[in-house]
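Following up on my earlier thread - several people asked me to post the actual chain instead of describing it. Fair enough. Here it is, all 235 residues.
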Amino acid sequence: MSAVMQLNKIPRTVSNREFFAKFAHPGMVGLAGGETLLDHVIARAQRHIDADKKWGQWSHAFIIGEKRCDGNLWVIESDLDVHRKLIRFGAQENPVSKFDDGSFYSSMALLDFGLDQQTVTKVIAGGLELIAGRTRYSLRELIGTLIALRHPKMRAVKNPLDQPESFYCSALVRCLFLKAGVDIAPGLDIKNTTPEDIWRSPLVREAWTIDETAPKKRVAGAVKKVMAKFHRSSV
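Reply from S.P.:
Thanks for posting it. Predicted structure:
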């Protein structure tokens, strides 16, 4: 967390829907953390960012987009979205109501970078351009970032598993801000940017969080097994 950031902690009596309705506006960055095994794998991998090796709190990042004629805010993100008759892997738009379920998205944050309206427009327009171009989600690059997290010097250089026109969630956010002329995670390669890096950005002006994270001990054993398999396969 940025040392200069004004942090507002919202009690869990407020629902995710109320949280976004009250505090979200276009151009903000949203962060989410959940209680699935994948969320905890990502959170554990980000412990290398922290001096005390504390797990990261965030496993997904997205940008708050515009309010549409239906009265709802929409978000721009790169995600793995699987439904019964629809599979979307990559840049996409979704209504912010996607994050309504507080039992699935147990931690939420909104980051205000103090962007002027012209910069907000550039960020959102850039996101829509990537969506129109069907930019893919990159699991391969995500693996490259997980490797780089264990070797800090690698984080400033090109992701070894880089793919053209592909981004995982926080890399997409970083890319769109850079295209608009704002570097929210200086010193890191775009495709080595994690949600935790965005949370710790020195450019955050103000943040709002809502959190009900379950104890991580109950999944720590499962996470260690998954990460052990990953390390063996990457050798």
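The first helix runs from residue 16 to 23. That should answer part of your original question.
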